[in-house]
Structure formats: C-alpha cells, structure tokens
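Recall that a protein's primary structure is simply its ordered list of amino acids. Everything else, from secondary elements to tertiary packing, is in principle encoded there. The following example makes that idea concrete.
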Amino acid sequence: MNHQQTRSTGDGPLLRRFEYEDGWIVAADLGADAEDVSVDTVGETAIVVIEGDGEPVESEFELPGDADSVTVENGVVTVEGQR
C-alpha cells in the first residue's frame, strides 16, 4: 500500500490518498453533515458542493483515475476506484 497525505492551503479539507495493487481510495475530511454534501465525479476530478448557511461552497480535487463509488459519512467523502 502506498499512502500519500496532503492538506490544501487555508481551511481546505484534509486529503488522504491510498493506492493498492488493485485500486485506490481518496478521502477528504470536510467536517460537514452528509445531507449538506453532494459529490459528482467527472473523469479524474471530484467536484464537492457543501450547502449551508449562505452561499454553497464548491471545491474539487484530482483523482488517480475514474471513480467507481463515492460515499459521504461522518463528514468524510470517500472516493474509490480500480486500477
């Protein structure tokens, strides 16, 4: 397993990327309730929108490949894909 951890500048989410022989996982700690978060993937990009008080906040992050699944639980977005 190869593990890479990065933090975006400012108050952005903490990103963790795990690469395995047969797939990969990217997790972002958003600190938001699941019902306030929507995630779309387009190619190798994840687009995250957080609804809350005021205007929605949108951010995106690169993925190591096309996503097979996306989940949001306890404020953490998890995107998984295969090699």
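The chain has one domain: 2-82. The longest strand covers residues 23-29.
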